[in-house]
């Protein structure tokens, strides 16, 4: 009997997994709850529920351009078009994902509108329950492997700020941010300084009267922020009409956008999966993805602070190599130890345990390790180097870091030149 593989989700992780299982002696299916590929890269102007009553998965906003140059977002073996801008809009990058899906005939493997509702370990197999989201017909099927590719930028992490319920203006989470129009001439409070907080803050500041940015990140942003952009520390309390900050200052506010991140959310994973699930971390995972207690289950794409697409794609290739038997995993104790060492390091540094998913400076070594173990082609070191310089450029100026054009010379080297756009679309200060 052929190995049976269930891939849950048709975003970049699910699609790359399918692509690399394609043509192997494996029976696989991709179950996707929406009617689309590309997951979070598909912009949807709506918020709330979709046409089938499911919570909208995508967190994409209209003006998003990638925060990494295109070279760092290439899917293995499928060259990024020469004429693609260096930092494409979501729209252009989404076309690339669709082209990939079509080129490898992946559509025929995807069961669209099928939502996975329960994954259980029973009698040494995975029992996967799923339903058709329109007809509500239920199915159950057995699999040898499960690749969980459902993303983790969908379920908002809501802060609990005193006075939140008394605030009379509108509060949204970045998951529901689509475009700046509704904030025109308003006084808007953006909370959080992650990638979305910075990006959405600048997007809204283009039209808002004031943009109050509250965060505690101790990073020296050297961006020349416009005069309507005001930095504040953490919020102490919200009132009916505004916010009091921990430094005692007060600001009148019309609307709030929480850019406070997302939760890991796997409502379909039964306890028998052996994973410990927390909104801020999923453990224990060997190599950031293999479920140590049930190593025929892999969770892709949980890594943060990395060239996420390259990392996900390498994980998909590793997963495929594992499934077809190109390598075998070490015994459970060894896998547990690899995880434990990383866990200990996070604790020793006094960092929040969510850092267990952080690649950051370990990114390049991660690629080396994945390849050494599984035999997959290594993600070249040049990508890590590009990301490092891109991060520097962001600190320098959030308005201009996307004006750099990167050219890869070889696996270790690249060149970068500055090419300001002829006509600046976004007017800045
Ligand atoms: C706003 C935003 C900007 C980003 N910008 C960049 C960037 O510039 N560069 C970069 O490298 N990365 C970026 N990322 C990271 C991005 O998450 C990854 O690039 C990548 O798209 C993640 O792919 P994924 O397949 O893991 O998840 P997703 O794209 O989230 O796909 C998951 C899929 O699983 C499906 N699904 C979920 N639950 C179920 C279920 N129960 N049953 C069936 N199907 C289900 C969903 O419908 C979805 O199609 C960004 C993310 C966000 C949110
Ligand atoms: C498994 O290894 C063979 C031989 O190196 C290779 O041709 C094949 O692509 C690999 N398969 C996967 C899914 O990695």
UniProtKB/TrEMBL annotation:
Alphabetized, the UniProt keywords read: FAD, Flavoprotein, Monooxygenase, NADP, Oxidoreductase
Q: What EC number(s) does its UniProt record assign? A: 1.-.-.-
* GO function terms (MF aspect): flavin adenine dinucleotide binding; N,N-dimethylaniline monooxygenase activity; NADP binding
Q: Which cofactor does it need?
A: FAD
Q: Which InterPro entries match?
A: FAD/NAD-bd_sf, Flavin_mOase, Flavin_mOase-like, FMO-like
Q: Superkingdom of the source?
A: Eukaryota
Signal sequence interval, chain numbering: none
Q: A single Pfam family, by name? A: FMO-like
Iron in keyword set: no
Q: Which family does it belong to?
A: Belongs to the FMO family.
- PANTHER family named in the record: DIMETHYLANILINE MONOOXYGENASE
Q: What is this protein called?
A: Flavin-containing monooxygenase
Supply the source organism for this entry. Answer: Eumeta variegata
Which gene is transcribed and translated to give this protein?
A: sno1
């Amino acid at each position: 009997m052929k190995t049976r593989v269930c891939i849950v989700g048709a975003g970049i992780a699910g699609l790359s997994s399918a692509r690399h299982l394609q043509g192997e002696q494996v029976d696989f299916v991709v179950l996707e709850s929406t009617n689309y590929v590309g997951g979070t890269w598909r912009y949807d102007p709506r918020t709330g529920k979709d046409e089938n009553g499911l919570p909208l998965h995508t967190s994409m906003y209209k003006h998003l351009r990638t925060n990494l140059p295109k070279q760092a977002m290439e899917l293995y073996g499928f060259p990024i078009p020469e004429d693609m801008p260096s930092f494409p809009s979501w729209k252009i990058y989404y076309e690339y994902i669709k082209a990939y899906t079509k080129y490898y005939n992946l559509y025929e493997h995807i069961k669209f509108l099928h939502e996975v509702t329960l994954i259980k370990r029973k009698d040494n197999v995975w029992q996967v329950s799923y339903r058709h989201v329109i007809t509500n017909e239920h199915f159950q099927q057995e699999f040898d492997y499960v690749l969980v590719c459902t993303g983790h930028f969908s379920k908002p992490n809501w802060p609990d700020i005193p006075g939140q319920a008394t605030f009379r203006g509108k509060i949204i989470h970045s998951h529901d941010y689509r475009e700046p129009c509704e904030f025109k001439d308003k006084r808007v409070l953006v909370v959080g300084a992650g990638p979305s907080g910075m990006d959405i803050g600048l997007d809204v500041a283009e039209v808002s009267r004031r943009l109050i940015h509250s965060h505690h990140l101790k990073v020296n942003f050297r961006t020349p922020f416009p005069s309507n952009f005001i930095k504040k520390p953490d919020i102490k309390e919200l009132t009916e009409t505004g916010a009091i900050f921990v430094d005692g200052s007060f600001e009148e506010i019309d609307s709030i956008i929480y850019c406070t991140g997302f939760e890991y959310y796997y409502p379909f994973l039964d306890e028998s999966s052996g994973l410990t699930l927390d909104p801020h971390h999923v453990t224990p995972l060997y190599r950031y993805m293999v479920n140590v207690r049930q190593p025929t289950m892999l969770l892709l794409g949980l890594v943060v602070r990395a060239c996420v697409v390259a990392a996900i794609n390498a994980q998909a290739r590793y997963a495929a190599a594992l499934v077809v038997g190109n390598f075998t995993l070490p015994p459970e104790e060894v896998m547990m130890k690899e995880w434990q060492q990383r866990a200990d390091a996070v604790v020793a540094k006094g960092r929040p345990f969510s850092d267990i998913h952080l690649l950051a400076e370990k990114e390049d070594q991660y690629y080396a390790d994945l390849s050494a173990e599984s035999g997959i082609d290594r993600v070249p070191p040049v990508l890590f180097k590009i990301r490092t310089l891109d991060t520097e450029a962001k600190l320098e100026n959030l308005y201009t870091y996307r004006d750099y054009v990167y050219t890869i010379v070889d696996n270790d080297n690249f060149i970068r030149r500055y090419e300001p756009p002829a006509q600046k679309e976004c007017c800045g200060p």
